[in-house]
Design goal:
Helix content is about 40%, strand content about 15%. It has helices at about 10, 15-25, 45-55, 75-95, 115-135, 155-165, 175-180, 220-230, 250-270, and strands at about 1-5, 30-35, 60-65, 100-105, 140-145, 170-175, 195-200, 235-240. The chain is globular.
């Protein structure tokens, strides 16, 4: 398994793209995930991404997108979000990424007005459409678990159900370690994702709310989680996800610390190759 970084760690504090990629390589990461807007992205912008990552010997693995209206009760809204995700599939294909990391939305109106089963069915239908498009373009879709009360996919069990309901050879799970922890799932629950998960996110938290902290700055005991992840035999990448750096001027130190702790934990678990 390789160790990667989502480039939003640098972008969120205003670090210019090429500089952020250079720091990513110098710190020691194996790969990079590219967080950008795919809707109407220009060929020049895509060329900059490809050329910069290639010059720094950083394979591009994933492009994340939030499509929070994919289960909206208005058909045009759902279709817009589906088309926008397809634009990310196009982006992934054009820059050589392996997957689109898809964040689904939440049930609206506390599941009271529209039956949750219907909202779930809409999400499944749209992701089936996206999966078919991704398959044609040789790109995978990886669904991210979001540990919020009304998230469509909020824990391991709902992830398994969603992936199986979609039933697409192009649609898989993303395991976000801090999200699994916040969802309250025991590490052994990850065994249910054997053969279903193709990508991972890695960060820490305070045990109460979403944080995307550098590993070691929160409360998570990563060892049992990484032990279970090793058992899944995923031929993929563990990508560090960092947000909300309290001292933007120290972002390089922030990312380097995350790298060093993560690399050590992966080595201890026998995961990194």
């Amino acid at each position: 398994m390789k160790l990667g970084l989502i480039n939003s760690a640098f972008a969120q504090v205003g670090v210019e793209f090429t500089e952020g990629i250079r720091h990513t390589r110098e710190i020691g990461f194996d790969t990079v995930d590219i967080h950008t807007e795919a809707w109407k992205i220009t060929d020049e912008e895509k060329k900059l991404i490809v050329d910069t990552c290639r010059a720094n010997d950083l394979p591009i693995i994933s492009v994340p997108v939030c499509a929070l209206g994919i289960a909206d009760f208005n058909t045009p809204v759902r279709k817009f979000h589906t088309e926008r995700v397809k634009a990310y599939v196009d982006l992934a294909r054009d820059i050589g990424a392996k997957n689109v990391l898809l964040v689904l939305g939440e049930y609206i109106w506390q599941q009271e007005v529209i039956p949750p089963e219907q909202q779930w069915a809409w999400a499944v239908e749209e992701v089936q459409d996206i999966g078919a498009y991704a398959l044609k373009n040789r790109v995978e879709i990886c669904i991210e678990l979001e540990p919020f009360k009304l998230s469509l996919v909020k824990n391991v069990d709902t992830m398994v159900k969603f992936i199986k309901d979609v039933n697409s050879p192009a649609v898989f799970a993303n395991i976000d370690v801090s999200h699994v922890y916040l969802a309250g799932d025991d590490p052994k629950e990850l065994r249910k994702l054997k053969g279903l998960a193709h990508h991972l996110h890695f960060s820490d938290c305070d045990g109460k709310v979403h944080g995307d902290l550098p590993p070691g700055k929160g409360v998570i005991d990563f060892r049992p989680l990484l032990k279970e992840i090793k058992g899944l035999e995923i031929d993929g990448v563990l990508s560090i996800e960092l947000e909300f750096c309290p001292e933007p001027e120290r972002i390089v130190e922030w990312v380097r610390e995350a790298y060093e702790v993560s690399a050590r934990l992966m080595a201890e678990a026998g995961l990194r190759v």
